[in-house]
Each structure stands twice: as structure tokens, then as C-alpha cells.
């Protein structure tokens, strides 16, 4: 399944190559209830063709209508939807009661814009992680290298430059699940719903054929072999969920050699302690490599069922991705 972010940028690049001016809309902040998180994209052409979303539909309809009327000709502007008193946001009150702040960029069909969109696409496809900088007043934009975790949209800390925004860009989130189990099915389903590219690996061909979660890629091979052969980028999470050390341990031994941002393996505290000793003694891992492993995996929710365990795992993966401590809201 192609991540929606990548689809939006790919379509924007296609339109730009066809000579179309594209308006790229980015959710910067949300207040109260909101259907889309900061960093969400929508690309729109003057004639109303669009991909992606900002809300449940009312914001999109208003923006497309105003765009057809000739508005949003400036290079960049921030508009506020959901504040009924704000004329810039069309006096729209969102049904969910929330407020959206949206960056609107007008991207003409020029070579430099196509190069910029091409860099966005390459980043989402896994080439590298970047920070995107946009100066709203000047209407300029550029990239810088970034290896940090944290929120997708970074509001400037300098009071003197509130018009300079930063947005984290990373490859489309990927989850590699080592081994098929009841927890694997629930975890794959949660991850696909969250927009992850999900790849499940297991050497049992019959189990792979029976695994049926929409939008998930299944590989009938040892997870360790897949990880070693295909590599992982910095937006990859790797989890081992079988309780079989022949699958789980080998997957962990390969996973720690990748830049994956989350590596976890299922098991009790006693099992995890024994695994750590085994990976150092027999697997040749260093203590620093073993410390990268989240084991026991997931948030401490008191989970009992496969679905509850999967919820704890995916909750912890999202927490780490956004650079949050376990006790931080």
C-alpha cells in the first residue's frame, strides 16, 4: 500500500510536469478535535482536482471553491479553519469543534518547483530524512539534513521569526513484522490503518497463504533474510512476535544493524532477560546493540488479548516516532 503522503506528492509532481500550478496545503496545527494530524497534505489544481485531505470535507470544499474564485495567489499563507470569526478561514465552524491552521503554498510549474517536489518524493521513498523550511513572508523554501525524531511540524522558537516554519520529512513509515501469530494479524491491521507500509515475513508458506490482512505485503521467507537483503530506512519499525527464538532472535540480530527507529520483541521480563544474555553470548551482539531493543515490547497497558498487545505495540511505536517519553502527553 502506497502511503497517502507519497501519493499526494507524486500526484503534485505529475501535475507540475504537465504544466499545472499546484497548491500544496499542509496542516500545521490542530486545536481540539481534528480528523487530520499536523503534517497532513492536500494537493489541489485550479480546476479543483485534488488528492489528500485536511478535514472531513468541509474545509476541502471551501478551499477549492475559493481557489476557483482566484484566491490564494500569494506564494505562501497560513489560514485558520474552525474559528467562525476568522474571515480568512471562511467563517467555517468544523463539525468536530476543532480548529485547523493550514499552510497554503502556491507552486508554479517551474523547474525549481519540480526539483523541490522531486526531493520530497525521494525522501518519502526512503532516500534520506530531511527538514523542510518554509519562509511564509518571502515565499521561499529549502531543505536541510535531519536525523531527529519528533513532531512533523516544528513551530519556530524565535519570537522574531514566527513566519519561518520547519517540517520533518522522512520515508513513508514502514513496519516489518517478523513471524506470523495472532498478535501479528492484529498488529498488521492496526499499522495499516495508521498508514504504515506493512511487510510480514515468515518461512511457513502455508501460514503466509492463510494470512489475510488487506493492504499488507507477505513474504514467505525468514525475517532475518528479508531484513538483511532489503535493508531498512530510518522510518522503519521492526517487531518480532512469535515467541520462537529461531525467528525472533535472528530477526533482532539483523535489525540492530539497520537504522530502524524502533526494534522490539515480544516476551515476558524473564524471557527478555534470557534473550538479552543469549544475543550477547551466542549472537555476538554488544550491550549497546541489545539496549536498542524494546523488550518486553510495547506500552505497559496490562494487555492480555492479541488485539490489546498489538495496541500496546503500535502505541509505543508511535510514541517513539514522535520523540515522546512514556509519561509525556
UniProtKB/TrEMBL annotation:
Cited SUPFAM superfamilies: NAD(P)-binding Rossmann-fold domains
InterPro entries, per database record: MoCofactor_Util/Proc, NAD(P)-bd_dom_sf, XdhC_CoxI, XdhC_Rossmann_dom
Domain XdhC Rossmann: 175-317
One Pfam family here: XdhC_C
Residue span(s) of domain XdhC- CoxI: 15-70
Annotated PANTHER family: ALDEHYDE OXIDOREDUCTASE MOLYBDENUM COFACTOR ASSEMBLY PROTEIN, MOLYBDENUM COFACTOR INSERTION CHAPERONE PAOD
Name used for this protein in its record: XdhC family protein
Protein source organism: Vreelandella glaciei
